[in-house]
Design goal:
Elements lengths: L12 E5 L11 H11 L5 E10 L3 E3 L29 H13 L4 E3 L7 H10 L7 E6 L4 H11 L7 E7 L5 H5 L7 H15 L3 H5 L1 H4 L3 H4 L8 H10 L8 E4 L2 E2 L2 E2 L2 E4 L1
Parallel strand pairs: 1-6, 2-5, 2-6, 3-4
Antiparallel strand pairs: 1-10, 7-10, 8-9
Helix pairs in contact: 4-10
């Protein structure tokens, strides 16, 4: 397979709060994502790390166009008819394999796994023409330090025109929301404010130990898979000395959850 020529400039790296399938019906959020992508240089390919795929060793998803993986239940039927036929990226899979294999990180292939909603829901809003190749990889661990190391190993892809995207949710506790009534619960606002300040202050050590250093960390993330992709993004920025370029592109709340989304570079 031909490998694309190097990009003229390094791609940013993103952490985004990806929303659930009803994101498409929100009056604000789809436009925010579309405006964000319009400001970015056009990627040659997108590497997605979604909270909704945990597999070890690290797995490479489909390198050809496959049906989407509708990994949710109990929603109206029209959410299961969404299509996003992005091209596969076999050359990107090979680049990932070489980078990680050379660094002693085992890799497996799961060629029959299409994009899950953590990947395609935001991409439908950001790149609706589905004309940019996409490769999804798994979260091989939830350990923040190991995920930062993974991001550092993947960082050279940014100079090949690859947009590395960690897709999660800045706060995520659906069970607590069901018992909170209306409005935004205090644990969500407290964690969001703490996280914003930690990022702005470059306090990576506190972020790595967020279960203990943050207010309401156990409530904001009773299980950490939705915060975990942030650390891949942080690693991809740290490898190029760009942690101080961070900016929150999207903030606020959706159904009580913090939708903070961040760009480096």
């Amino acid at each position: 397979m031909p490998t694309p020529a190097p990009a003229a400039r390094r791609m940013p790296t993103l952490y985004l709060s990806h929303g659930a399938p009803p994101l498409a019906d929100d009056p604000v959020w789809p436009g925010q994502l579309a405006a964000w992508s319009a400001e970015l240089p056009r990627p040659r390919a997108i590497l997605m790390i979604s909270a909704h795929w945990e597999d070890a060793p690290l797995a490479l998803g489909a390198t050809r166009t496959l049906p989407l993986f509708y990994d949710f239940w109990g929603f109206p039927e029209h959410y299961y008819t969404v299509q996003y036929a992005a091209p596969g990226a076999p050359w990107l899979a090979e680049s990932v394999r070489k980078l990680l294999g050379g660094a002693g990180t085992p890799v497996q292939d799961v060629e029959d796994r299409g994009l899950d909603h953590g990947a395609y829901v935001p991409l439908v809003e950001m790149y609706p023409d589905a004309d940019i190749p996409v490769l999804q990889i798994s979260l091989p661990t939830l350990d923040p330090e190991r995920l930062m190391d993974l991001g550092r190993k993947l960082a050279p892809l940014r100079d090949e025109g690859v947009l590395i995207v960690g897709s999660g949710f800045f706060t995520h506790n659906l069970a607590a929301l069901r018992h909170a009534g209306g409005g935004v619960p205090s644990w969500s606002t407290e964690f969001d404010d703490w996280g914003m300040r930690a990022l702005e202050g470059g306090d990576i050590d506190s972020l790595l130990d967020f279960r203990h250093t943050s207010p309401a960390g156990q409530l904001a993330h009773p299980r950490t898979e939705h915060f975990a992709p942030l650390f891949v993004t942080l690693g991809a920025a740290d490898a190029t000395g760009e942690l101080d370029t961070r900016r929150s592109v999207i903030d606020g709340f959706w159904m009580g959850l913090a939708k903070r989304s961040i760009q480096f570079g």
